[in-house]
Amino acid sequence: MKKWTALFLALLFALALCPPAALAAEAPPFDDIQDQPNQEAILWCYDEGLLQGVGNGRFHPQGQVTRAMAAAVLFRGGEPVDMPATYFGDVPVNAWYSAAVRWAAYHGYINGTGQGMFSPGLAVTRQDLALMLRRQACCDEVDRDVSFAADGADVAPYAQDAVAWAYRQGILRLDGEKKLHPREPVTRGQLASILKAFYGEPETVFSLDPDQITELTLRSGEGRDDLNATAEQIQWIADWLNQFPVWEAVEAEVSGLAWDYSMEFTAGSQAQELRVVLCSDQSLYVEDSDQEVFYYGKPLTGLTSFLEQCFKDVPFVDPAAVQLLDVNPEDVDKITVREFATGAQADITAPEDIAQAAQALSQVKAYPCKDPVLPECWDYIVEIASQKEELNGASLRLCHGTYLVLSQGETATPYMPSGDTDAPLWELVERTIRPIPDKVDKLFDIDPNQVEKLEIRNGGDGTLVSIAGQGEIAKLVRALNQFGYVEENAGHDAVGYQYYIDFTSSSEALKDLRVTVVSPDCLLVSRPGQDGTLMEYLSPGYAAGLLELLDGYFQPLPDKGTPPEA
User: Fold this and answer.
1) Tens digits of per-residue pLDDT, 3-42?
2) Which residues of 85-108 are buried (b: 16+ CB within 10 A; e: fewer)?
3) 126, 122, 131, 125: which is closest to 97 by C-alpha?
4) pTM of the prediction?
5) pLDDT 10s digits, 509-566
6) CA 427/CA 433 separation, integer angstroms
7) What stretches of 137-220 show up as alpha helix (H) in DSSP?
8) Residues 87-96: contacts with CB under 8 Å, at least 24 apart
9) How far apart are the first and last CA of the chain?
10) 276 forms bridges with which residues in the sheet?
């Protein structure tokens, strides 16, 4: 992808795309890498001593990487140590890769292939290379979710952790069809790009000089008044964006994309402009006058939390919330719920269930968006089938916990929910798609409007995050209200905890409530009136969504100071 030229004059901004640096002016050491997409990475690896040529001035970028080559590369990038004199039966003592193989096997980065053999000439697949690099990185986190790739089902079970980790680190990337090709052999050119991503500095998107920014307009996708950022806010936002690394960067049509916040920069006498739009917790897009590029990078939770704080007291442009639907259950034949991510679908047909769904739909109140867009990505869609013409085919899309899109006939309009009026509908559709088994009891029934503040403590490093925004409080409460348990006071041996959540509330039922997340399968709850006694609740899998949400609040933030007060 081409590098953009300076967006602002006088070196105000430099938006660096992959590749981030110009190639050296001198002739390259290899005559077969010109016009190769991996050319810069090959040169970087050559300069770092990680990769060498194959002789006669050639690099052979299309050649397959063997297990012997992989061992040699890891050996060059690692720390040599004295090793036992153990050898594989098919690795000659005087082979050029002998020391590297012994070193890699000694550390457990590359294992043998069985019966005392190493198979040095066997081709290395992309998933196997990810596994080797993950072992060298000493990463022991467990995350087998490879659904981000269109061919994620092709990843072997033993490599799922490694592939998921390599993708999150920007080491393995998707192609234009969102595929990883995990079982394909790695070429030498591809190896160069992978090594550069693994050993090199992460490629960043921005290089913003806050001193040159004359104006920064902050806009909220939920339809609040615009804000003009203060100098401190400009400094903090610029520092944060300057650390944003590229995982994926693709040119995309984003005119219909839902967004959470927009940052519009103005700088210099020419009033050059740049717009940065946050689309979700892990993506943003950048647009100037002639190009739009969509980025996936590190989680944006820190930035979105900061912007939410900025807008916490800013009124909506239209303070009058409207009722989106008035559904009489007697007019409804069927209500269908579909989940976007999984394609799961469920029909609500029982009269008592239709009545409950109609009540939840009629309760939703929302604000018209100031800058309407039609989101293409959504979590759930609720469709109504009715004999009544004006109601038949009406649908409501629930998007990222922030957007609602009402469709009636040919008209589709996005809204922002008012307060937590959409919470019963979220609970209904989540329960419909993934019903809680009869043996599992609901643990919480918390009204988010009664919660003034939540404090979350990270059990790993002791850091504390305070959540005061109603939107974030509602999301956390919704996750807790979905939690069901199968057993209480089961005598679980909880050595430590991952997070605890403290409630601040005027309600006696919630005052001083503490929820401690021990694991995805275990919560400890101390309630008021129990003298701090911990009640233990076990529920396999039901806390996983809560854990994922809590993880998002503890992403690294810029080192330069504390975020200014909004």
Assistant:
1) 332 333 222 333 322 333 333 334 568 888 888 888 888 9
2) eebbebbeeeeebbbbbbbbbebe
3) 122
4) 0.45
5) 888 788 888 877 778 888 655 555 667 777 655 565 677 778 777 754 334 334 344 3
6) 10
7) 160-168, 188-199
8) 88/112, 88/116, 88/117, 88/118, 89/115, 89/116, 89/117, 90/117, 90/118, 90/119, 90/120, 91/118, 91/120, 95/68, 95/120, 96/72
9) 37
10) 263, 286
Residues 294 and 174: their CA atoms lie apart, in Å, by: 14
Determine contact, residues 462/432, Cβ cutoff 8 Å.
Answer: no
Rounded Cα gap, residues 283 and 140, in angstroms: 26
Number of H helices and number of E strands within the chain? 12, 24
Structure tokens at 562: 């504390």
Q: In what order do the strands lie in the sheet with 411-417?
A: 322-323, 365-368, 411-417, 403-408, 395-399, 380-386, 332-339, 345-348
Amino acid in position 66 = T
Q: Which residues contact residue 169 at a Cβ distance below 8 angstroms, ignoring those fewer than 6 apart?
A: 197, 198
Tokens of 464: 């504390």
| CA separation for the pair 109, 107 (Å, rounded) | 6
Tens digit of pLDDT for each residue in 224-280? 788 999 999 999 998 888 877 766 566 655 555 667 788 888 876 555 678 888 876
Q: Which two tokens stand for residue 168?
A: 């999150």
Rounded to an integer, what is the distance from CA 71 to the centroid of its chain? 32
